[in-house]
Design a protein that fits this description.
- By secondary structure, the chain is α/β, with parallel strands linked by helices.
- Helix content is 53%, strand content 17%.
- Among the domains are: 54 residues, Translation initiation factor 3 (IF-3), N-terminal domain (Ubiquitin-like (UB roll), Roll), CATH 3.10.20; 105 residues, Translation initiation factor 3 (IF-3), C-terminal domain (Translation Initiation Factor IF3).
- The longest helix has 35 residues.
- The termini are far apart.
């Protein structure tokens, strides 16, 4: 069974342009096919003038008194008009505005999610209206909303331009973002390209820092030969003699060796005093043993104090 065709319920296009016999005014101002004005003629005469040239009599200015009619090929005229309208629609750009709403106390995860939506809208060449909604006493701190909007605009610099700065309207603060020139020209078409451009912009200063630091030591190295070359060849002899002149400076440490021997003498004296102290300590220890001064050992440690109570128990 054949499938029934869908009925087109759209009304047919009505052509309101009056041509040939549809022109029902007594007289018209006629213009020929070359664009030259013929004059005011009766409608029948103007129609006969058009048929003699195998063309149509078309009313182009019905509001004029008398109406203006032109002799031309009507089918070609309609085609040219359609092409003009098509070109006008082609160059006409339709602007779509999307809206994303934030809160002053938005969490980081929600912020990242909504920022991704804003980036997606901008990459689709839509304008985005970013709104901060304040509730209650939050409206007394508009700087929080400004901080969020400024942060968003800074993070989307590669794909967005600020078309309207943040403005407070009642309890809502709005900012308008438009696609950047890179997005409109097709240089950035995806979020990955936007991230790569953002990373490249961030890596550019880091790469320039070593480049600026690297030549710094080179001028210092080249400065010495440059000074020598400026003085000329005769100056090179003193520069060669400079190391030889420094030999006395190297001999100075050798001459200071007696000063270095002084500490060695001090070391002998210290050793001598240490040797003298050893017999003194030994004599003191022998004297303590012979005299039986055992209580003197008690302050040295707890062993002497603890050994005292043990002896009575052993004697008991």
């Amino acid at each position: 069974m054949p499938v029934p065709r869908r009925l087109d319920r759209r009304p047919p296009e009505q052509d309101l342009t009056r041509i040939n016999e549809r022109i029902n005014v007594p007289e018209v101002r006629l213009i020929d096919e070359q664009g030259q004005q013929v004059g005011v003629l009766k409608t029948a005469e103007a129609l006969r003038f058009a048929r003699e040239r195998d063309l149509d009599l078309v009313e182009v200015a019905p509001q004029a008194r008398p109406p203006v009619c032109r002799v031309l090929d009507y089918s070609k005229y309609k085609y040219e008009q359609a092409q003009k309208q098509k070109q006008a629609r082609k160059h006409q750009q339709q602007i779509t505005v999307r809206e994303i709403k934030f809160r002053p106390k938005i969490a980081q995860h929600d912020y990242d999610t909504k920022k991704g939506h804003v980036s997606r809208f901008l990459l689709s060449k839509y304008k985005v209206k970013v709104t901060i909604m304040f509730r209650g006493r939050e409206v007394s701190h508009p700087e929080r909303g400004v901080a969020i909007l400024d942060r968003l605009a800074e993070e989307l610099t590669d794909v967005a331009v600020v078309e309207q700065s943040p403005t407070l309207d009642g309890r809502n603060m709005a900012m308008m973002l438009a696609p950047s020139k890179a997005v409109l020209n097709g240089q950035i078409t995806s979020a990955a390209q936007a991230a790569a451009a953002r990373a490249q912009d961030g890596a550019a200063p880091a790469s320039e820092a070593p480049a600026d630091g690297a030549p710094a030591p080179e001028p210092t190295v080249d400065a010495q030969p440059a000074a020598a070359s400026d003085d000329g060849a005769p100056v090179e002899a003193p520069t060669a003699e400079a190391p030889s002149g420094e030999q006395p400076a190297a001999e100075a440490p050798s001459g200071e060796q007696p000063a270095a021997e002084a500490p060695s003498g001090d070391g002998d004296e210290s050793e001598a005093t240490a040797d003298d102290e050893k017999p003194a300590k030994a004599d003191g220890a022998n004297a303590a043993k012979s005299g039986g001064e055992k209580p003197a050992k008690a302050p040295r440690g707890k062993s002497a104090g603890t050994s005292g109570p043990k002896t009575p128990t052993a004697a008991a």
